[in-house]
Amino acid sequence: MAGVSFRNVTKVFGKDVKAVNNLTLDIRDQEFMVLVGPSGCGKTTALRMVAGLEEATEGDILIGDVRVNDVPPKDRDIAMVFQNYALYPHMNVYDNIAFGLRLRELKGFVWQLTHWNEAREIKKDIDRRVRETAAMLGIEGYLNRRPKELSGGQRQRVALGRAIVRKPKVFLMDEPLSNLDAKLRVQTRAELIRLHRSLGITTIYVTHDQVEAMTMGQRIAIMRDGVLQQCDKPEVVYQKPANRFVAGFIGSPPMNFLEAKLVEEGGQVWVDAGEFRFPVVGNGAAKDAVGKDVLMGIRPESIFDASLESHVKPTDFNTFVAKVDVLEPLGHEYVAYLKCGKHNLLASIETGTKIAIDQEARFVVNLEQIHIFDKETEVAIR
Ligand code: ATP
Question: What is the pTM of this model?
């Protein structure tokens, strides 16, 4: 078992494509870390550097306490699962899972002839491990089938099996679920979490899907243009995003951003966006930023229909009136597109609401959940 560390790691492709820019990140032993970010942000490159498939231009990569920059991939004791899991089509499931082990542990045909007893023991051990792994993944009934005789989900499990059976120090997974349909993805997500819990192997998981990141990661590292933006537990990243990018990337529907100014009146700091003017609560840093142009961030789920019972009581200071432009039913809630003066906002509204398209209604905002970002630097003021 081992943690993985990036220390000031940069990867430049060609002359000037900085795919990863001065990345410092410590992934703890047995941790499930998700690297997430939009396409091209450098997450795959970061993963490939751990695997040894790309060389770092600068900085150190450590597995455990060992600097591995110069260690060949096969000696790093890692296993990688890709989106395109490329099973061997001519081998059955059993052989697909056993292949890597045989290659590693049975040292060639001649060796097997000269070390017959030893080879027999190793083969027995491989057989036990393949069957154990298949049972763990629920594919023990398919061991004799070829990949083409399996569903996408079953194939993905064989690919996982191939990685697990080696009991590596570190798992690297690059969008391993993106070939699966939505339902199977959710199911396999849960299976992977369970598997991680029972094996306890340090895992780095790459995805562009923020929901996947939030649901799977013990911590998540959000990247943008090669630069790490924030790394923390999912709930912290959601509740205390470090900057506007993270705030907009995490959460669905996305956070609303309104151009505003911080002003002080009678000892109270307000965030003022014209039609939206709210007292700032629980944010000590806002006082020092009075006078600044800012972005007020309000998550759709921090807005409630004021006519419904909720834990946020409407007052003179936390409500606004808006016209409902579009109402999208999602079954468990509505996504309402609201218009208020020059501002457009999204709100997640509970079912049972009486709000209707083209009509005005009163909404209440949870003031404790308002985010404020410096307009220029986009860094959170908190
Ligand atoms: P995706 O989710 O689309 O896979 P990503 O976040 O994993 O994206 P990377 O694949 O790491 O991003 O790519 C980061 C940047 O490096 C991109 O601008 C990409 O075009 C560039 N890049 C990646 N591999 C190479 C390469 N072999 N040669 C040149 N540029 C590359």
Answer: 0.92
User: Atom 16 of ligand 1 has which residue's CA nearest to it?
Assistant: 19
Measured in angstroms, how far is the CA atom of residue 225 from the centroid of ligand 1?
10
Q: What are the φ and ψ backbone dihedral angles of 190, each rounded to 5 degrees? A: -65, -40
Structure tokens, 278 = 């709210």
Mean pLDDT over each residue of the chain, to the nearest integer: 94
Instruction: With a cut of 80, say whether residue 364 has pLDDT above it.
Output: yes
Tell me which residues have their CB closer than 6 angstroms to ligand 1.
13-14, 17, 19, 37, 39-45, 208
Q: Is the CATH number 2.40.50.140 carried by domain 253-374? A: yes
Domain with CATH 3.40.50.300 in the chain: 4-248
- In this structure, what token pair is assigned to residue 4? 């993985």
- For tokens 């096969």, name the residue: 74
Percentages helix, strand, coil for the chain (3-state, rounded to 5) are: 30, 35, 35
CA-nearest residue, atom 3 of ligand 1: 39
The first and second tokens of residue 34, run together, are 């998700």
Protein residue closest via CA to atom 11 of ligand 1: 42
CATH 2.40.50.140: which residues of the chain? Answer: 253-374
**Cα(42) to centroid(ligand 1), Å:** 6
CA of 204 to the centre of ligand 1 (A): 17
Distance 329 CA to ligand 1 centre (A): 37
| pLDDT for residue 130 | 96
CATH no. for 4-248: 3.40.50.300
